[in-house]
Amino acid sequence: MAVTQGRVLVTGGAGFIGVNLAPVLAGLGYATRCYDNFSTGRRADAERAAYDEIVEGDVLEAQGLADATRDCTHLVHLAAQAGVPASVEDPVTDCELNVRGTLQALLAARDAGVAGFVFASSNAPLGELTGPAHEGVVARPTSPYGASKLAGEAYCSAFAGSYGVPTTVLRFANVYGPYSYHKGSVVAAFCKRALTGQSLVVFGDGSQTRDFVYVEDLCRGIASALAFGGKGLVAHLASGTETTVLEVAGMVAQRFGGLPVEHRPARVGDVARSVADVSTASELFGYVPHVTLEEGLDRTVAWFRESDA
Predict the structure, then answer these.
(1) Closest alpha carbon to 218 in 287, 282, 286, 152
(2) Exposed site from 42, 52, 149, 205, fewest CB < 10 Å?
(3) pTM (2 decimals)?
(4) Is 131 exposed, middle or buried (0-12, 13-18, 19+ CB in 10 A)?
(5) Is residue 234 part of a domain?
(6) What does the radius of gyration of the chain's CA atoms come to, in whole angstroms?
(7) How, if at all, do strands 174-176 and 212-214 pair?
(8) What is d(CA 172, CA 185) in angstroms, rounded to the nearest whole number?
(9) Domain annotation covers residue 181
(10) % of the chain residues with pLDDT over 90
């Protein structure tokens, strides 16, 4: 397809979301450039995702990132330390990657004069909630990861206000799907253990809830937000459906022919409830999730089986 929409730099582009995003962007007429240090993402996956260009580099390398961004019209900032447990164990590295890395990306975007900047955040900045997450909830993070993502959100707002950078903060729910083998999130962790016949590990009693969104739906939401080009916008991308971790464990176990569930102590920093209201994303840029949890798990389990991840 001819390039009609511009060139998008995707930081962390060889990671789980990046390699699913690239084909979506290409299908909409964007040229795509992957920027990744390959510490977790794989070059082979980036090549399979058919990026137009692949640049090896780190978001903490200011000059390399600036060079990679210079001729881009848009930037999607996915590169990060992802996950609560790692942030609790090493909050300094979490801060360095998620705060300074985001600042470097914003500086590169400002200097390149991009038409759109999307920052991948999560519900973690909001902390414990009694109801659905939405843009009006006051942020009270309960983990270093949540704090670092909140700082990134604040920098996006500041760069929109001070420099006119058209930033959009997207708070991702619990994303699952193909190419998630290096993720520690719930569905990926279950699938990896199931492949080797191990019990599925649930931390706590499993009554904690998560909002599981299939990666294809999420990527289409990112692309829609990029085209919308908000300035200081914050929106949630999720399924809008609340499911307990224990329920998902049962669904995954069933797809692998039945496996036992092992309970371990609850982890520090994990929230008890997480579900999001997606009405802002729906109203502003037409976000609508289409893939049900059942269908998404079928696709994800099939991918793990076929890839032998």
Answers:
(1) 287
(2) 205
(3) 0.94
(4) exposed
(5) yes
(6) 18
(7) parallel
(8) 13
(9) no
(10) 89
Instruction: Please choose, from the candidates 17, 62, 16, 12, the residue with its C-alpha nearest in 3D space to the C-alpha of residue 38.
Output: 12
Sign of CA dihedral 114, 120, 123, 125: negative
Q: Is residue 256 part of a domain?
A: no
Place of tokens 């009609």: 4
Backbone φ and ψ for 128, nearest 5 degrees, come out as: -70, 130
The count of structural domains within the chain is: 1
Beta strand residue intervals within 61-208, DSSP E: 74-77, 116-122, 167-172, 174-176, 200-203
Tokens matching residue 153:
């959100």
Q: Which tokens hold the place of 287?
A: 């976000």
Beta-carbon contacts of residue 82 (< 8 Å; ≥ 6 apart) = 145, 183
User: Per the structure block, which two tokens stand in for 243?
Assistant: 């499911």
* Contact residues for 115 (Cβ-Cβ < 8 A; gap 6+): 6, 73, 74, 166, 229
**Cα gap 21→32, rounded to integer Å:** 10
pLDDT per position as a tens digit, 70-81: 999 999 999 999
Q: How many helices (H) and strands (E) does the chain have?
A: 12, 13
- CA angle (86 as vertex; 80, 87 as ends), nearest 5: 75
Residue 167's CATH number: 3.40.50.720
Positions annotated as catalytic residues are 145
Domain with 90, as residue range(s), is 6-176+212-239
- Residue 205 burial (CB count, 10 A): 11
**Any domain includes 266:** no
